[in-house]
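[audit] Reproducing an earlier prediction to check determinism. Same input, same settings, fresh worker. If the tokens differ from the archived copy the diff job will pick it up downstream; this log only records the rerun itself.
[audit] input (91 residues):
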Amino acid sequence: MCVLFNDQILIADCYNHQVKLLNPQYQVLGHCDFNHYPNGICQITPNEVAIAVDEIQGHGVQFVTVDDWQLFNPFHDSHLANISLSSYHKT
């Protein structure tokens, strides 16, 4: 879950492969579909979030923009943002 600067709420719904946009009264205003399981959200700019996704091949990151209470995922089917999260673990 992530709360944006204007009280917009984003939640990762991994069972339905969606990220959902809620208003402060927790009403769903929109959603963005994913081909993979979204399992984490991190705000990176005032209107952009990074979504951690689980894929069969590993893990990845996709980006979603929130503008005027709508969600936009410009790289919906892109594999360009795939990363190996194991490289960030220190032993």
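[audit] rerun output stored. Observation attached for the diff report: The chain has one domain: 2-88.
[audit] end
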